[in-house]
TrEMBL record:
Catalyzed reactions: a 4-saturated-(3S)-3-hydroxyacyl-CoA = a (3E)-enoyl-CoA + H2O; a (3S)-3-hydroxyacyl-CoA = a (2E)-enoyl-CoA + H2O
Family affiliation: Belongs to the enoyl-CoA hydratase/isomerase family.
Keywords (A to Z) from UniProt: Lyase
Name this protein carries in UniProt: Enoyl-CoA hydratase/isomerase family protein
Superkingdom of origin: Bacteria
Residue ranges crossing the lipid bilayer per the database entry: none
Amino acid sequence: MSDAVLLTEPGPGLRLVTLNRPAVRNAMTAELTAAWVDAIEAVRCDDEARVLVVTGAGNTFCAGADLSWLDQGAAGDVTPDRLRDRMLPFYRSWLAPRELAIPVVAAVNGPAIGAGLCLALACDLRYAGPDTVFSAPFIHLGTHGGMGATWLLPEAVGVARARDMLYTGREVGGQRAVEWGLATDVGDDALALALQAAERIARAAPIATRLTKAGLERSVAGLAEALQWEALAQPVTMATADLHEGVQARRERRPPRFTGT
């Protein structure tokens, strides 16, 4: 695996992916994208992984897409059709946190700009640091938003605030990000906050956790769809050994020891 992305195990059940190109503010270059895809696939295939944390090396979470390649090809190569063919796989690669079965927590240690904001929004939880800013300056760069910005932003902050961010390109800092729903919490160390939350999630029952993430994805279709899913998923968890362990641990007033069975 390329050192453009580092995959480590900071604790039991925890996996940490670090975007490791601080010299370019962790911009989504072709190299970084390929390394990201490899790291996410490794996590996807890891049966012991219960929670993934994503962060950036240096003082930036992710400065967004690297569009320098637009100026490197022949003029005929930059056509809407060819760009679309390139964009869709790029979007899907970086939005992979939505598709992972386990929860993904973003430690947004610095600016999350454009596509970098969308990467943070693709994670289930986001923790901000003192230098964190979220921004969607697409139209001020002369381009339409991409990578799900027009869906992910309204999901997180509501339509009115999404319009504000997309139209003005304003930078939203840590405390306001919490108030708006862009971040779960803010503190002196975003990674420490994210790992603390991840450790708590990792102690939960793995089957129930994965089914809860799947249920939350389905719930956007409405209450009826959510009830149909829960009527299937809850009986599955009730047939697990972990359910009995959880009940017994509660009775004995001790931490449960879930095994994913």
